[in-house]
């Protein structure tokens, strides 16, 4: 790895729609970044949090396909599943995403890969959920706890 | 809409004038008159912006004498940025693992037929 400055992940929250946008650049062409998102053996190497084991139930990344995987940690299993709505090599993946602990919730995920020259790629990932409260819950928790505590702290601050 | 506290904060900071006001209040408290000075808008308009910031919990007005300076509630601001920073860092960690995967991928990989 060379510099870190150009690789830092940027996050933005849209004020008008319940959407989170992530932008990150990679030292690899779109074809490779795309492959790392579609080949389950590769996906398993990076997608899950480090302290969890990622178990892929199935991962059929093509238009009309579906996926399900588990994060396993200390005997706890967290399941995630969804459908691949549109998969267009090497630039676009549109999929749904549901955390099985909250099965009524679903987000629409859109991944766009653009070549930016010198064999590099800009990844833009947007996640659209169905309410601002859900969006903020995701932002506040990073999907991994701390949400209630965070909201309580904010409630306290706002009440004070 | 936007009953959720964090959403109110995001919405409040979505406006460039309000972001500017927050930046100035981060340096020091200021009165509405002082805040309005650099902008080509009425005191009323600035008061409106301050009401949005106040509803989001980002600023408060003290009752101190006639002056009633506006005060930035830095704790709320920092809590929000800390949350987003944690989320961002998780994404960055994930993408550093992806960097490693990409580095190890052979160059001659052809896109799937």
UniProtKB/TrEMBL annotation, chain A:
Domain Activator of Hsp90 ATPase homologue 1/2-like C-terminal: 27-158
SUPFAM superfamilies: Bet v1-like (SSF55961)
Signal sequence range: none
InterPro entries per record: ASHA1/2-like_C, START-like_dom_sf
Family of the protein in this entry: Belongs to the AHA1 family.
Entry protein name: SRPBCC family protein
Automatic annotation (TrEMBL), chain B:
PROSITE patterns registered for this protein in UniProt: HTH_ARSR_2
Single GO MF descriptor: DNA-binding transcription factor activity
Gene3D superfamilies documented for this protein: Winged helix-like DNA-binding domain superfamily/Winged helix DNA-binding domain
InterPro entries on file: ArsR-like_HTH, HTH_ArsR_DNA-bd_dom, WH-like_DNA-bd_sf, WH_DNA-bd_sf
Occurrences of domain HTH arsR-type (ranges): 1-91
Superkingdom of the organism of origin: Bacteria
Family annotation (SMART domains): HTH_ARSR
One Pfam family from the record: HTH_20
Residues in coiled coil: none
Protein name per its UniProtKB record: Winged helix-turn-helix transcriptional regulator
Biological source species: Pengzhenrongella sicca
Organismal lineage: Bacteria, Bacillati, Actinomycetota, Actinomycetes, Micrococcales
């Amino acid at each position: 790895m060379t510099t870190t400055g150009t690789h830092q992940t940027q996050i933005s929250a849209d004020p008008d729609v319940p959407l989170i946008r992530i932008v990150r650049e990679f030292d690899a062409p779109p074809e490779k970044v795309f492959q790392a998102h579609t080949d389950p053996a590769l996906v398993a190497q990076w997608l899950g949090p480090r302290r969890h084991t990622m178990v892929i139930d199935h991962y059929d990344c093509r238009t009309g396909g579906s996926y399900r995987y588990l994060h396993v940690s200390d005997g706890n299993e967290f399941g995630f599943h969804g459908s691949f709505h549109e998969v267009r090599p090497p630039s676009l993946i549109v999929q749904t995403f549901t955390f099985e602990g909250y099965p009524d919730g679903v987000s629409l995920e859109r991944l766009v890969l653009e070549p930016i020259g010198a064999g590099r790629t800009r990844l833009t990932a947007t996640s659209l959920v169905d309410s601002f409260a859900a969006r903020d819950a995701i932002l506040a928790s990073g999907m991994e706890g701390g949400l209630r505590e965070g909201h309580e702290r904010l409630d306290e601050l706002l009440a004070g | 809409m936007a009953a959720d506290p964090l959403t109110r904060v995001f919405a409040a900071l979505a406006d460039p004038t309000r972001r500017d006001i927050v930046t100035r209040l981060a340096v020091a408290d200021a009165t509405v008159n002082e805040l309005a000075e650099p902008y080509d808008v009425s005191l009323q308009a600035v008061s409106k912006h301050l009401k949005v910031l106040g509803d989001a919990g980002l600023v408060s007005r003290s009752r101190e004498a006639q002056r009633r300076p506006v005060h930035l509630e830095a704790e709320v601001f920092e809590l929000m940025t800390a949350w987003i920073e944690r989320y961002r860092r998780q994404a960055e960690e994930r993408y550093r693992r992806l960097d490693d995967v990409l580095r190890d991928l052979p160059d001659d990989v052809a896109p799937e037929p």
